[in-house]
C-alpha cells in the first residue's frame, strides 16, 4: 500500500493552509520531512537503510496548532498516526504505560487503514453478497430439520464439568433450506428493489456477529510481548450471533462489511500494516517538556529521566513485538512537542536531543490570527456554529465587526490570564451563543445577526471583570 508521499512540499503546505492559520515555518518543516520519505523510497535498498527520518521538535504554547499540523499531515498522506502524551509513560519497572505501547498503537492504526483499503477493493462483490443475504431474510426458504452433530472426540475430557465441547469448538452450521421456484423468483424481485433503493427504509431482523469484548486487564502484560489473549480464547469459541432490527439500508452496510472481511486475507493485511507502520508511521509525542527534570521536585527526577531513556531506543530505531508481527522503528517519523515554559530543549538528555535535529518555534497567535481562524479554514469555528444552528432552521450571520470583537476579547483574555491559544475562541463562542443554542429548537425559522453590540451585551461585562473572566472565559 502506498501513501501520498509524492506530494511536493509546496502542495503539502497549501493543503495544511486550508485548516491551520499561520505557522508557516512548522508547516514547511513537516512538508520537507514528508517529501524526504518519498525521496528515500526511490533510492537503492542499501542507501535506504542509511537514511533515517529527521525528527522534529515543535516548541510553543498550547492551542497554537502543533497537534493539528501533525494530525492534518497524516490525513493528507493517509499515513498511520497516533498522538501520545509523554507524561502518561513510566520508566520500566514502575506501574504504568510501557513506551513500546506507542508503537503497538501505531500498528493498530495502520491495520485499520489497510483493512479499509482492502475492503474498498472488494466492496462491489461484498455488496452483491450482502444484498443476496437480505433477500434471503425477506424471502426465507423452507427450513430442513437439523441433523444431530457428531460427537466431539474431546467429549470425554469435559464430561462432568458442564462444558459441551461440540459448542466450544464446532463452527455453527447454517440451517439448510429448500428454495422453490416461487421463492427464487421472489428473491430476484427483492434484489432488484434493494438495488434501486425502494426498500431502504423497510425494517428487517438480521443476525449479526457479536462484537468481541475489549482486552481484559490480565492481557496487558502479555500484550507487551505481542500476545493477544482475547484473540487466543476467541478462536476456541465460534462467534455468537445476535438479532438486530435495522432498516434495509443499514443491513446492506452491516452485511457488506461482514462479506468484505470474508473476501480479504487477514494475514496479508497484518503484513502490509507492519510495512506501512515502518515506512510511513508518524508518532506525535506531546508534552515532551514535562519529562525533563528542570524545575521539578527531586523525588520524580529519576523516573522522568528514565522515561526519556526508555523513549530513546524507540526513537533511535528498535524492534518492537506486536500481535501483528515485529515492527522496526528505524524509519518512523517522530514529532515531539512542548511549551518549554519552565524547561528548554537542552534540558532533555543529550542523546534524545540529538534525535530531534529539526527545531521549530511556533508563534503566539495575534488578534489578526484569531480573525482568520474564525473565518478562513474549511472547518472554521463560525462555520461550525452556523451549520449546527442551521439544523434548527436558524440562519446565523456574524458581522465582520462582531468577529473582530470576538478576536480582540480572545487575545485580551489570553494576555491577562493563561495563554491557551485558539482554544480560547471555543470558550468565548460557547458563552456568546449559549442562550441561542438553548432557545433554537423553540424558535421559528429565522435569521439572527451577531453584531458587535450583541457580543458586548453578552460577554462584554465578563471581560471587564478580570476575576470573572478567569473563571468563565
From TrEMBL:
The gene is hslU. Residues 52-362 form the AAA+ ATPase domain. The lineage of its organism: Bacteria, Bacillati, Bacillota, Bacilli, Lactobacillales. ATP binds at residues 21, 63-68, 286, 351, 423. Its main location: cytoplasm. A double ring-shaped homohexamer of HslV is capped on each side by a ring-shaped HslU homohexamer. The assembly of the HslU/HslV complex is dependent on binding of ATP. This is ATP-dependent protease ATPase subunit HslU. It comes from Marinilactibacillus piezotolerans. Coiled coil: none annotated. ATPase subunit of a proteasome-like degradation complex; this subunit has chaperone activity. The binding of ATP and its subsequent hydrolysis by HslU are essential for unfolding of protein substrates subsequently hydrolyzed by HslV. HslU recognizes the N-terminal part of its protein substrates and unfolds these before they are guided to HslV for hydrolysis. SUPFAM superfamilies: P-loop containing nucleoside triphosphate hydrolases. Keywords: ATP-binding, Chaperone, Cytoplasm, Hydrolase, Nucleotide-binding, Protease.
